[in-house]
Amino acid sequence: MSGNDLDALLRVTSPTYRGKSPPDIAFGTYDGAVGRLTLAVTARGIVACSFEDENRVFEQVLKHVGSFIGPDPRRLDPVRRELDAYFSGRLRAFATPVDLSLAMSFARTVLQKTMAVPYGTTTTIEALGELIGRPRALRAISNALAGNPVCVIVPCHRVVRADGTLGDYAGGVAAKQHLLTVEQRASAAR
User: Fold this and answer.
1) 49 catalytic, yes or no?
2) Which of 10, 62, 110, 156 is catalytic?
3) Would you state the CATH architecture of domain 105-189?
């Protein structure tokens, strides 16, 4: 989707879109090593870094976060630069604050604990279950990870199956493997 297409979409679908005024929610995309990511940034932080289609993410943000949505490079470009640095192995921790407004309460708990998984390492769903005090909630934890609205930055890719296999990932198994490989190489180089 080009900038003009996105601007046209925003004009039609966002009831309070004001064109050149800075929006409450910055919305755009990032094309990187694992494909296109749809980004949305609120005053609180990044609310979406998603492999999902821009229209779907836009609808979720509109429904759950706010309606004054538009392109805002001054808020999106720092996230894009951090993603560039991450994918090149130069960034181990994102400075951009995370806004988990698109996650439900239980999912928010799971994702917050996922953010504590160290760069270059992995954990299991079972270990996350123990960590949050819900060792039998494996399906709910898996669903929370699958619904992560802030992929890459909230590192659900660091959660693997108990047998060591990668398991599913919103961007696909190849994307998950790529993210883990970037982190492992950067960790080994230090």
Assistant:
1) no
2) 156
3) Orthogonal Bundle (1.10)
